[in-house]
Each structure stands twice: as C-alpha cells, then as structure tokens.
Amino acid sequence: MTAEHSGTRVWPWPGNVSIRQMSLEHEGIGSDAAMPMKVEVDFEGLGGAPSFGALVEVREGQPELVQWCFRAPEGTRGLRSADFRAINVSAVLERVAETVGVRYEPVADGVWEILGDDEAAARAAIAARRARRRSGTRPSLDDVARVYREGLSTGKPTLAVASSFQIAHRTAALWVQRAREAGKLGPARPGRAGED
User: Fold this and answer.
1) pLDDT tens for residues 25-64?
2) Least reliable range by pLDDT among 9-23, 54-68, 79-93
C-alpha cells in the first residue's frame, strides 16, 4: 500500500506502508466490530524521509499504540524533532482498524457472523477510544489526599496516586496540587514529599 501525503494526514510523509496482523485471534472494538489482537505497521519513507515501525494491540476493547520505532536508513538524513511531532497517533490507529478490522453480528452465544471488513471497524475503534477517555471518572480530592497520605510511607506519595488511579505521574501531581488548593492536604514542604 502506498501512503500518500494528503490533507487527512494519516501518514506523516510519502512512503510505502504495510499493515500485518500478528495474531489470528480477534477482539471486539465497539459493539459490532473486531480486529486482530496484535497488528504490526511498517512504514518505509520515500525520498530520504524516515521510516518507522509500530505495534498496535487491542486492550480493553480499543486499539492502542504500544510500540513505535523510528529508523533513518543509511544515506538519508537523521531524525528531527519535526518527525516526532508529525505523527498523528489517533489517525494511525484509525487506519489500522479500518485496514484489518471486520464487522460482525452475534448469531448465538459466543458465535459471530462476519459481515464485512469496511470502515465500520474504524468508526468502532474511534468510538471506543472516545468513550474510554470520557468514561474515566476522576476520584474525589478526598480520595486523592487519602492515597497520597498512604503513599508517604514509601517516600513517593505522588507515584502512589498515579499508580492507584492509573494515571500519568504529571496528572497525579496536578491532582495533588488541586487537593492542596482545596484544603484536603496541607501545604507542601519544599524539596520533600508530605505536608506541613
């Protein structure tokens, strides 16, 4: 498949792309679509542009990018910051789902009939990703403060918040800051975990 640099910008620059399923097992994405549990993407940049490889897995009912590797083949320019910024992860995941996804309909308990492999799989993937982002409910600031205090024994209370709520460390730090601002935690001690 040739990747054209178009207005929709799925692929960051012109090149040849191959999308291969690495697993025969399929997992549902959305209510009426499925795709292989593991898919490999190989992109060969043209005209001296970088190449890359990616691994996509279906996790909790949605395609997720789990690995990305840039390559600057010999005789081409090296990698640049702009190369990294040019990647639209959502667009790549949608194209992968569109390419290898299938629509299905349940016909009996645990039995499905495959209806086709069209853009419905991509739409299901998009809907699943958006639903997951929206469904994440934030814990109360009281819960953040409680987990933070419990994590003081480890010396890394913000990491305890991140782990407990399955969020990035940066997001956990923001939640801890909000808990402090709301009076749920005491003021920070400069240079040390805890509160005054």
Assistant:
1) 777 776 667 788 899 999 888 888 889 999 999 887 778 8
2) 9-23
pLDDT of residue 134: 47
Closest CA to 156 of 167, 172, 142: 172
Q: CB-based burial of residue 166 (10 Å sphere; 0-12 exposed, 13-18 middle, 19+ buried)? A: exposed
pTM score, whole prediction: 0.56
Q: How many Å apart are CA 120 and CA 112, to the nearest integer?
A: 16
Residues 191/157, Cβ–Cβ less than 8 Å? no
Q: What H or E segment, with its residue span, contains residue 107?
A: strand 102-108
The residue behind tokens 């109360």 is 140
- Determine the Cα–Cα distance for residues 91 and 85; give it in Å rounded to an integer: 13
DSSP code for 74: T
The first and second tokens of residue 47, run together, are 């005209």
Task: Please choose, from the candidates 25, 2, 6, the residue with its C-alpha nearest in 3D space to the C-alpha of residue 15.
Answer: 2
Tokens of 3: 């990747």
